[in-house]
Structures are given as C-alpha cells and as structure tokens.
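Reviewer 2 asked us to include a model.

Predict the structure of this chain.
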Amino acid sequence: MNSETNISKKVVVLGGGISGLGAAILAASRGYDVFLSDRAVVNDAFAKALNEHGISYESGAHTLEKLIEADVIIKSPGIPDHIDLIKQLKQAGIEIISEIEFAFREEREVPVIAITGSNGKTTTTSLMSYLLETAQVNATTGGNIGESYALQVAQKPADYRLLEVSSFQLDGCYEFAPHIAILLNITPDHLDRYDYQFENYIDSKMRIAQSQKASDYFIYNADDQAITEALKNKDIKAQLVPFSMTQELKHGAFIKDNQIIITLNNTLFTMPIQELALKGKHNTANTMAAATAATLLKIRKETIRQSLQSFKGVEHRLENVLKINKVQYINDSKATNVNATYFALDSMEHPTVWIVGGVDKGNNYSDLYELVNRKVKAIVCLGIDNGKIIENFAKCVDTVVETSSMEDAVRVAYRLAKAGDNVLLSPACASFDLFENYEDRGRQFKAAVRNL
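Predicted model (structure tokens):
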C-alpha cells in the first residue's frame, strides 16, 4: 500500500463514468478492496473493463449498507454534495474525495500542471499539451478532458501530468498540489451547484492553489477582479505569477506594442500577437497563460514560438464549420455559460445570426445586451424553455425564433442569414435538455450544416 496515502483498505467509488472507472482501476491496481456503485446503468464497455479488473460493482441503484462500509469514498464530480446519500455518508464520518485527489495521493512524485477557469480551460490545456508534445516532454493530458487522471496514473508512466480541472473536481480536493496551477478567470457559472452564491464558486476555483508549496507556481489572471480579491484573503504559499492584457508587469506576462512579453527569473520571451494561431482577446490571454507555464518549465523559446504559431484550436470552441452562400457557420457549442458566449460574440466581425439556449444555470444575460445590440441581427432559440432568453433579448433584436431541434434551428438560421453574415451556435447554457452533452450538440450542429 502507498505509504503516503491516508486511504485505508476499503474503497467505494460512486459513479461509473470516466472518472469513476479510472479511480476504480487505479484503486484495484494498488491492492485496495474496491466496490463501484452507480445509480444509472453502467455502460457495456465500462462493465467489461470492471469485470476484467475483478472489480465488484452495482448498477441502477446505490445500496447504503454497502457504501457505509467504506474507509474512503471517491465521488464522481457529477454527483452534488447536497443530496441525501452524500449527507448520510458524511454523517457516518466517511472521507469523501474526488478522483483527482485520489490519483494525486497515489502518485505524489510526478509533478502536475493543472488548469482551471470558468472559460478557456480546454483551449489552454490543449495548447499546453501541444507545447509539451512539440518539446518532446513525456507528459499525459487528462482530467476534465480525455482520459481520467487516475487511469493514467494506473497505466501510463510519465514525467508530468497535465490536467484540466473543473470546480466540481476541485470540490473534492484537499491535498492536491499542482507544481504549476493556472487560474484563467472566474465568472458566474454552475451557480445552481453553489447555492447561487458566487463567493462559494470563487472558493471552489481557488482550491487549485490551497495546498501548493513555496516551490510551486500559481499563474493567475491579474485582470480578473474575483481572483485578485480572493488572493487578498487566501494564504497562497506558491510563487505568484500574474498575466495581464491591460497592465505592464515587472514579473509575469503582459501585452505591450501588440506583443506578448513574458519576464520570469531573468528570462525574457516576446512574440507578436498577429503571429498567434489562436485569435481573439480571450485566446491571447489563454496563450499567455500557457506560454508562461512553458517558460517556467524551461521549454526552449523557439519551441514555444513554433507551437503558438501552429496550434490548430479545439473542436466545439469557435470552430469554423463551413461557408455556404458566403455565410460562415461557427460551432461554439462549448460555450455553456454567459461569459464564454460574451467572448464569442465579441469576436464576431460580421452581422450574426445567433443560436442560443438550453438548460439555464442561473444565467444573468445583462452583460450581453450591448454586444447583442451591436453584433446580432437575429436570434434562434434552441431549448425546451426559451422564456428567459426571449424576455432578455426581444428588445435587442427584431427577429427571435423558437426551435426545438438542431436541424430546425440550422434551417431557420440559413433562411435568416445573408451573404457576408455569420451563423453562430454559442448557447450560453448547458446542453442536457435536448442533447447528451455539448459535444453531441456541436456534432449535431455540424451535421445539420453539412446537410443544408
């Protein structure tokens, strides 16, 4: 048994998705007595993997008597803390942690680069992964994207672990201490999981740095008021490395004369913004964060430059799909909150037909009014309940149309758009009313565009 872990012999994994399966396989590989419990039906491929590793499980229900025997519970990030089952398990005095926390405890010796933020974390993680690959660093990429951290610890030895981490994953972290933590921004999101208190969500994001040591680095957005205010009240031991789009910094990354400038430990890196593969202000900030981390890792300047010039971007994030009759169709399905959609609309340089809607997570749309007035010629609502969107934007645009399927939404947008316009899917909402997830929503959008 790992001598550094607090975990006793009996491990229960709650949730049989990607993170749950990874945690169960890692726990089994370490010789723990593992039981997985999923309220939904475990899919066939996952059930096969559990059987192959000799992991016992239940599917379609949670049996409290079996769960309460645990010394530690590894909880899926999709399961909220406020449900009765979790309350009962906490009352029983059982430690409940996330898969990220568990994997870290099992492999403390491999340094972690962890990236979080309300927006841009997938793009920044993907860019960082590309940087490491170009520099021929032996690193895995996972967490909130791709394979679970735990599965990689179990099966893929590496010199570095690069992780995208969500607030839900951080909520179950206590000892998790990345060598380099990146916090891109904090804007209201998932407030339904945080008692509609923005402060609770801020606390969740700041957990990424709570256990870092003085030899670690915390790269953060110095333009983000939520972060700079939180830093005043938190005892962060890591070395602070800010990045800014608006202020000149003696230490960190900033913009001057349309150039990214990074000054760190007597190292100077500069690169013209127009040479960056990722366009738009928000992507310049994401690029600065990744390049700062690469500089701390002592990756060669020429390798960093080459990577920033040639990176191709991320599917479902401002992804140009097709141009039809001189109309550009853009897939930004990953914009599941207002702030992400703000960036998308802000980057539109032509009149835009905006496809918006889904499961509202407590959205405040007021930040979008000015942009919608200026950039949007028509709105196509795509959701089961579009009332709040119509109420907010009916005065901003003349045309608002309700639809209930992606095919219908794309056909309506096709009729509304003229040569030179954009059609932008940027929902500002979660996808679970009509789609499996944002990837399914994005793929359906691309299929519907190709079928026009």
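The chain is about 35% helix and 20% strand. The chain has three domains: 10-101, 107-310, 319-450. We have added this to the supplementary material.
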